[in-house]
Amino acid sequence: MPKKSIFVIVLLTLTLNLFSQEAINSKLSSIDYANPIKYELGGITISGVKYLDHNALIHLSGLKIGEVLAVPGDKTTGAIKKLWKQGLFSDIKISVTKIIADKIFLDIYLKERPRLSKFSFAGVKKGEASDLRDEIKLIRGSQVTDNVINNAINSIKKFYINKGFLNIQVDISQKEDTLMGNSVILKINVDKKNKVKIHNITFDGNNVLPSIKIKRAMKETKVKKWYRLFKVSKFISSNYEEDKNKIIAKYNEKGYRDAKIITDTVYPYDDKTIQVKIKIEEGEKYYFRNISWIGNTKYNSEFLDRVLGIKYGDIYDESVLNKKLFVEDNAVSSLYLDNGYLFFQVTPVEVMVENDSIDLELRIFEGKQARINKVIVTGNTRTRDHVVRREIRTKPGQLFSRADIIRTNRELATLGYFDPEKLDVRPVPNPANGTVDIEYVVEEKASDQIELSGGWGGGMVIGTLGLTFNNFSARNIFNAKAYRPLPSGDGQQLSIRAQTNGTFYQAYSMSFVEPWLGGKKPNSLSVSIYHTIRTLGNYLYQTDQRMKVSGLSLGLGRRLKWPDDFFVLSNSLSYQRYDLHNYDYYIFSNGTSNNISLSTSFSRNSVDQPIYPRKGSLFSFSLQLTPPYSLFSDKDYSNLSTGEKYNWIEYHKWKFKSAWYTTLVEKLVLYTNAEIGYLGYYNKTIGPSPFESFQVGGDGLSGYNMYGTETIALRGYDNGARNKGSLTPINGANLYTKYVAEIRYPVSLAASATIYVLAFAEAGNAWYDIKQYNPFKVKRSAGVGVKFFLPMLGMLGLDWGYGFDEIPGQPDANKGQFAFSIGQRF
Fold first, then answer.
1. Residue 690: CA atoms inside 13 Å, Cβ hemisphere, count?
2. Is the pLDDT of residue 704 over 60?
3. Cβ atoms 341, 366 nearer than 8 A
4. CB within 10 Å: which end of the chain, N or C, has fewer?
5. Distance between CA atoms of 823 and 671, rounded to whole angstroms?
């Protein structure tokens, strides 16, 4: 071998083996760069790696077979640098394997960084550790690089900083895994320190707005107070930045459009709290002056001025302007968007600012009216298309209307089959041909319910088992393939319910509702049957004293178009038979009573959704009456026995209910309700019916239809059924009134579990005779509660109420009561 070749091999072997990161910095000084020797690169091999692709590594090095390189030279040094930048290796060496003529062959030795075998947390709770695993996304078998370690530390810090732990410290230690080659175990040590709260927020330069009002504008950044329950004091930088914008927005609402924050400082107050100081420059107050419209052809300027409702001299508030133009139900944009002008735009432009006054031009682009091309429904994996589409108000060929879309969303939410929080509408406009496709996106939720409960009613514990299928399909009963586990998707309701106390009380009922009879119009059909057996025995002895009630009803309902299509007219015909044997609870104890009645209900329901309503109202007026048998008979009812007198009971029953839902702020909702009921009679000789009266008090569960009466809940007082402490008169209540005010706030609005807490104040009373009625002479109560909606169980509630007014003769009947409720009440 030539001496020259031997010299080069020895030189490369001695120098390139030292080309690690340290060699680059300290050992290249011994190489003679003055006399490099050029070679053609004949081949490259990779050694030392087990999991990485060799060709990819050669490509990353930048070296190419066939190229000419100087040895020693920049290309080999550069190859090492490029591989170091990948952060995948702890050692890199380049050595010469052989030289043939003018070709040189190199080997790149790479020592991989260790891989992750497992990791654990110290200093955190088990539940937090589970959340952190999702945050840091460490993968077993992946390489442990500095970047991986730093990302994990930063993710953990961010997780806890968002919870108010600003002083958190995170350290990750590595330990060699002796059971796995080239692997390490990570131990993540977390020291959260104390949660940092806000001691105080001070302001400088605020002369117009007092500090307390500015603090209220900061929705997320709150000072630590013992009474603050729903908004915990913690400092989160992103929330703080948003709250600073809200401070400026508050000033803008008052006309101070130039208000700005000059400086703000956040500094420690002590180990657990921080101090926030904000300096504000308020600027001058401005007013609206002249407002002019440009580009409007559909509506004249005078009409648009009336719709806008902003007058000369009003305080200049951009938020009010935006609401009047875009947000409110009767906003200017609604005029256009509800009449097909999908491409409508209006741009407010300040054309003059003079002293404290501002002139505006509202520049309108109306565009052409858009017609609906396609209506698409996606996400209804269980509910059939025709059930969804019959509730949709936007039809192909119609002019686009935002009001119809909003109404459609409301109708889809009230079906109860879809998650109302995830309903979405996606208009896809096509300006070229003036059409728009509308896609309604829904997400199915569990709507069937299983009722398995126990309650105290009528002096006994009663168990209930009920099944309600809210999206049933009767036409597929005989289709074996449709059972999943039951045929569903046609929007019908089937309910089966059984209640029992064992041998003393049993009740069975079944009902079916078809909301679109015939499938063409929203005319509903309902059928129900029920049977009840009640004895006067108890757990210690049996008795033959019993009452049996059997009944059935048939109802028809129709959605009206006038006064508007929120109104519904319902009619039903029902028959009940009461069979009493030695049952001394009523005026007569032996015999039968028959009850044939016709009911009419006229109602309006604009509530936005059934589970957690935020807006809307419900009004219902109903009349239930029997034929006035005594008016067509020549019998002397004063001489008849009670059994004969009530063989065919007669009455007229009137009820009125009203409920309102009002959003106070964000998700905080005020629910108010007022209702009244009256049971009248035709013949004074016969008097009030022994059945169909009212029971007032408690949770509303006690009646269980066992007494032939209607139970009205009034929290804070004992249950009805004329028990100890009841508000119901001993001889029955033929008239009642009730008022409710309730504040609600949601804890969870997830489809899997809707939970909200509430505080209530309510009042009510019951009377035997209408002459005793006084709507202001009521029993008052107040309390708190929580409601849960679980898809399989329905709405469940637990309230605690305290009655403020004593019941004569029962001093303990109002001293705090727990009330359990089933179902949503309106």
1. 23
2. no
3. yes
4. N
5. 16
